[in-house]
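Structure, all two chains, one model.
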Amino acid sequence: MQLTGVDRSTRIGGPKRDVARHATVGAMVAAIVGSFVYVAPKMSRNPLRETAVWSLLVVVSFAGWGSLMRFAVARRDRVDLGLRTVWGASAVCACGGLLASFSLMNRSAAFVVVEAGLALAIGAVILERRAVSLRVRKLAHAALSEPGLAVASAIVGCIFAIHYLGGIADSHTNPYDDDIAYLSFVRRMLDTGAVIEPFSLRRLSALGGQTLFLEIVALRAVPSQANTFDRSICLLMISLLIVGYRSKARKVPWFVALGTLFFLLSLPNLSINTASYYSGVAFFLGLFRTAVWLDQRERRPWQNALPLASVAAATCTLRQNYIVVSAVTVVALYVSKFLTSRDSLKSRARTQGVEPAFAALFTLAALGPWFVMAWQSNRTFFYPLMAGTANPAMQFQSGSSTILRELGLELGTLLDGLPVKLLGVFLFAALLLKDTSSRRPTHSFLIGSAAGFVALVHGLTQGDSSTLGRYAAGFLVVIPLAVILVTSTQWNGDTRFTRCAFVAATAFVGVVATWAESRPQLLTFYSRALRNIEQLNASFPRGPDTDPPEVSLYQQLQASVPVGAKLGVLLDEPYHFDFSRNQISNLDMPGYSSTKPGIPYFQGSEAVETYFRSLGIRYLAYVSIGYSRYHYRRDYWVQEVADEQEVWRAHAPYVIDFLDNLTSLDSRHRRAFASRGLVVVDLEEPRR
Amino acid sequence: MTRFRLRWHLVAVLLLPLPSCAKANVSADMQREVDAREQLGRAVAVDAGASRALAVASRADVLFEEGFSNVEYDPPDDFRHHAFRWMGQRGHVRLKSHERRPMRLSVKGWLNEKVIRAKAVVTLYINGRRLGSSGAVEDGHWSLETVVPSSSQRTDGWLDLVVTVSAVAFHWSDAPTLRVVVVTGLEWRDPALGP
């Protein structure tokens, strides 16, 4: 029936349905606006509620930015909430990178980015009110007609809520990674709008996308809640991507989506710090889902290329080892499309070259600013292939590695280092899957993951299987999820022993075995998460009374240094500093990275003094021997000289040498500050 | 070959060594730094009273691999105490060849005769070639010292040293955690550098 020129609502449902639709949309808009009004003003609030509401608003903001991208590239196509959040987060990443390359991505800019996303989300809800209202009605109808499934959904929803709030309430940060580096990057970005850290290995080895997202969360969270992005927001993004999966006209059955969610929530906690784990899973699943989405309809080349390139580029910024996976996956997608086309070779070359060219252009546009900031910080944009400020004497490749040993390390990582212990079962199932789309998304992602995994192990042969497993989890965990989702939309209910049925059975075995295997760890996780949620909920609103004593200690330390003076720091918690007050160089991991000509190690304290003075760094702050909370304990590093792992045996002498040199400098120069083991040495004035 | 091509060949021949020279200098600097850090690490550990830990620790030219436990201490938890590694019947160590110069190798340890109730023989093999044997161990303590000639070093890279103990074995159905042999020191150095 032709409905052109007639208001559909009037014809189909009449005024009653019109009211219902407006009520649904109105409630949604009111929820967004109300939440923003609650959380935006700087005032005392329940800390759990504050960060929970803010984190949900961040997801809505991502969805708003994603809706804008949908409006640009596919305004007539269905794009589910999951894809929109990943597209939106990718757009935020590109904008944030651009602002950061001009040192503009500070606290105010981050707030504006979220606000703009929320406005876009409200606009999208209003523009798409018919579809939104229809989906809400369908959901309500489904819940009433299938009460069993509704109860199961509620149970999974409760489990999800524990994970979500547990991520917000987990105040544990890693003293080795977060406290000395990652959290100070966030604070630096909030204060200065960029992350320029030429002495930091952590800065050298990532483009900075994860820091940007942590900064956005930090607007309404204390540093110890930095897990909120990876373990709460990204978990929600992954869940939305699972629930919204659709291949061509077939949607993932709800019970399969629930099972997949339950599988995801059953995996042992991937993260040991605030670096990228679940964000890797979210963006790689988003990349895979975007590739599946592309084949649903023919569009103009740039319309396909924009979302794919945005997500691929954002993924690259999260961790350096994700670059290979993203790049190879995208190349494999286009090569597959080229090979599966039935056109003549000449025609294919002419028609199919445009989209990859657009994809390359968009990727470069999104990554370019991050490269610029990496160059400003560490004189490289492609570490480790381009060393920049890295010390060439500190390698991550083992001097004794051979091809067979590398193979052994790969097998060890696959069998023991990953949260999905039966990944082999899922890999086997993935290979058996019939990839019918022209871009072969499943197999392309497998190729990308394989390339990324081999490159990761090859570049880090000093690592052990658990470390490598953590770095690879971001993309390898996506494989089981993809297998389950693809199988569920390919299986047509045929009960004969077809290949698809075999793949489904294999995946089912893998899922059940993973549940059984991770049960003991989950018991610990849930009891800890519930206690943490309870404690944070009962906490006083944030303020000077709730700050740890280190905040005032670090403020006093910084006050001993004149405003604008350059300060080098080797401290346990440099994130308490105001990075806009002084030019602070974080010397987090001595030995790995420094501005040319490089910190002179093993040459005595005079050489170190000359080096820092040549850079204009007059003040050096360090934690004196015997006072370090964790990372700069000299005794610990002496023990590491005899450690089993080459990486620590190599690093230990640098830390010891640097600490000894600082102690020697301290003995010769005036102390500008000394309290609780924290010392500021003034290199310009001798000690009297 | 045309004159044009010849000219480019000459340019290439003249320019190609440049990056490799630069790399050679970088490598020499790197090696100096690596040597310095090894030296400092060793000196600091000795100064801290951890020389016994160093004797059984993996290092730049000695890597303890399968067949050995991690380094343990007696009494435990302090790296300054008596350090050792448990060893099974067969332990594998990788030794870095120093430009195939003859190298002095000494290994020492202890085995619990009361548990194995046999007179064990400890034997060393380098890349499959038998290098030396302890004879029957009488009082539990064993040590082997030998010079590995350049002829026994097949490559410039890594050599495989295998330490075997003859009397430590178990039936497949009776696999206890046999903690009866320990290694308390392994030395691998140039004999020209003196004792």
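The first helix of chain B runs from residue 3 to 15.
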